[in-house]
Amino acid sequence: MELTFAAAFASSALLLSNFASILLASSRLKPRRLIPPPRGKQPPVSIIVPSRGVEPFAEETLERAFSLDWPRYELIFCVAQPEDPVVKLIDAAIARFPNVAARLLIGEDRISANPKLNNCVKGWQAARHDWVVLADSNVLMPKDYVQHLMAAWRPETGLVCSTPIGSRPDGFWAEVECAFLNTLQARWQYAGEALGLGFAQGKSMLWNKPMLDENGSIHALAAEIAEDAAATKLVNSLGLRVNLVASPFEQPLGQRTLAEIWSRQARWARLRRVTFPLFFAPEILTGVVVPLIFALIAAKSAGVSLPTTALGVLAIAYVPECLLAWSKGWYLSLRSVTAMIVRDVMLPVIWARGWLGGAVEWRGNAMTIPTKAMTELEESI
């Protein structure tokens, strides 16, 4: 009886926390809507776009960057190697939109083990304006991209970010990536913000350049292997907040393979483990696997049907998750629940992999992630 009660309680508590995170995230998220340019002063903005290789939808994401509804902005494209095939695409886009101030800078400054950050340094130094956006090249910027970022800035803000929302998946594994990005990672990030735990996300980052320059400039983001983790810690150390936009921006996915998803999720897990080990440790409890195991233990002890129990747990876990995606206009299909189940089966393995050290790959660049976080976590317990 004690085992039945303990297992049932653990399962219920985990499912309740899952549901609470959906409610918290939903309270912070807004469906997509067009924001007109603000009246009055509209400060000029520099948008730095680090690029490497030709990605799916590259021409569309480039065209979107040149079509923003903001009166004064400049685009600074950063590429590490002159022979990169994306150079031709960027040059062609600059030629097609002569009315938009845009430059392509080639080369890198090796200030860290993070190739993306190294690629951005020259762009930061070349930026002409006090407001600077670091935007990944695969972000599908809406016309009101700058408006959404500016609208999230408050007097106590040190940084505004947006999580990526996966869209346009081509194939089942891309739908699994949507399940990772949207109703899991974005959901928990917005739930954390609702609780006062704002974490930066490197996809889109709006900085006040004078503020960051006074506190180490872009070189300060080399303090951690992941620039968004360094940004989070820097902003918090200044007594400021990381805010998220109310309507996060799309990242069109196209085709994905299991190997690509594994590589990406394992890399992110290991980066989270190194930079925020105490927050990473309980990630094993997210998803449906652990509460399902506890529920089945309780059902078996109580003589309750195991298939019925499993179906009940899956419904409690995934119906609210689907409703969150539907209410915010995120991708949802008949295969979404299956994709969520596959994602949750992968989560414990990814979590375990996160505790191991070694090199990972970022767009062809090897990044060595240290293992010191394990020692730091053990010392803190």
Automatic annotation (TrEMBL):
Which biological pathway? Sphingolipid metabolism; Lipid metabolism; sphingolipid metabolism
Membrane topology listed for this record? Multi-pass membrane protein
Name the residues that span the membrane. Answer: 6-25, 274-298, 304-326
Give a Pfam family name: Glyco_transf_21
Compartments annotated for it: namely:
Membrane
Q: Which InterPro entries match?
A: Ceramide_glucosylTrfase, Nucleotide-diphossugar_trans
Question: For this UniProt entry, what is the primary localization, expressed as one broad class?
Answer: membrane
Q: Report whether Oxidoreductase shows up as a keyword of the record.
A: no
**Which keywords does this Swiss-Prot/TrEMBL entry list?**
Glycosyltransferase, Membrane, Transferase, Transmembrane, Transmembrane helix
Q: Which domain of life is it from?
A: Bacteria
Record's protein name: Ceramide glucosyltransferase
Question: What is the scientific name of the source organism?
Answer: Mesorhizobium album
- Lineage of this protein's species? Bacteria, Pseudomonadati, Pseudomonadota, Alphaproteobacteria, Hyphomicrobiales
